Amino acid sequence: MVKVSPSILAADFCNLEDDIRSVSSADWLHLDVMDGMFVPNISIGIPVVQAIRKYTSLFLDTHLMIEKPVRFIDDFAQAGADLLTVHLESDYPACIADALHAMEANGVKKAVALRPITAAKAILPYIERLDMVLVMTVEPGFGKQKFMEHQLDTIREVRAIIDKYHPGCELEVDGGITPETAKLVVEAGATVLVAGSAVYGADDPAKAIEALRHPL
Ligand code: DX5
Ligand code: ZN
Description:
Elements: E1 3-6, H1 16-21, E2 28-34, H2 46-55, E3 59-65, H3 73-79, E4 83-87, H4 93-106, E5 109-114, E6 132-136, H5 151-165, E7 170-174, H6 179-188, E8 192-195, H7 197-200, H8 205-213
Parallel strand pairs: 1-8, 2-3, 3-4, 4-5, 5-6, 6-7, 7-8
């Protein structure tokens, strides 16, 4: 069954405790970390991850949209992240490998993410060590953007690579996910759906999560 990971980027940061409780039926909780360099926006960082960890037992799916993430892997792991995702475009390949190694040393799950411009085959050097691959279906940086339909091809290509080299690896999709696009990405091979506005913009977040789990 598909997992749903609500993105708190769409939550009310002044009422984060309530807004995390309202999605407690979710499988994971998606935390978007932005540095104003890798993406043209700044969001939350280490102290906020640490604070959230005290209030929830949800699996913290932490999406690092930052330059040279290897610098901060220990900090985010110690703050309580369960899974860390680094972007393949955020550093040289050797440093991405070092970041994955640091995740291993900290006992957290490991993932790499692809911007829409990045080809599926870029995951090949890492695939056997990964717990998850994240395919972006919008340019990272902001919520509420339109789903990029051409990314369905990348999702299918990543699915084929996962099936061939590491069938247990999760395939997460992030950006513009609604019950309609959820159906398309699940058909293309996604196993984890990130949703910000589709969950927090709904009158009943729990119902929205359930709808994403069983796309139309
Ligand atoms: C965008 C973030 C997403 C964002 C998704 O850079 O990575 O996680 O919160 O928001 P929606 O679901 O509204 O597209
Ligand atoms: Zn994200």
